[in-house]
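pls design
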């Protein structure tokens, strides 16, 4: 596969030095999912392509979510001493899941 100079930098940062030279990617998804996304995009007055690009810009990678969670834990420790153990986190996660399931059943 041919790559351009600076490919590694683009891959690492998720940016391209020449956005006008970027190519589109084809992604296969079920037709009903595509239609749902297209309807959402149309409701926003934008194309499906623009909607997906906008959506991608709002989502965090697993590593970014983990980093944000760790920063939040550090802030809570500094602010009020809250520092749950892994067992407490598991118990609290299970309780949150239970409450969300209960709320969704209503």
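designed seq:
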């Amino acid at each position: 596969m041919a790559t351009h100079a600076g490919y590694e930098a683009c891959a690492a940062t998720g940016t391209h030095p020449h956005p006008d030279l970027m190519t589109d990617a084809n992604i296969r998804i079920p037709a009903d999912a595509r239609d749902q996304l297209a309807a959402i995009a149309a409701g926003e007055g934008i194309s499906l392509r623009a909607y997906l690009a906008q959506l991608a810009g709002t989502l965090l990678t697993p590593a970014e979510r983990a980093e944000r969670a760790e920063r939040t834990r550090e802030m809570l420790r500094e602010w009020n001493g809250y520092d749950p153990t892994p067992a407490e986190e598991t118990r609290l996660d299970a309780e949150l899941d239970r409450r969300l399931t209960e709320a969704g059943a209503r």
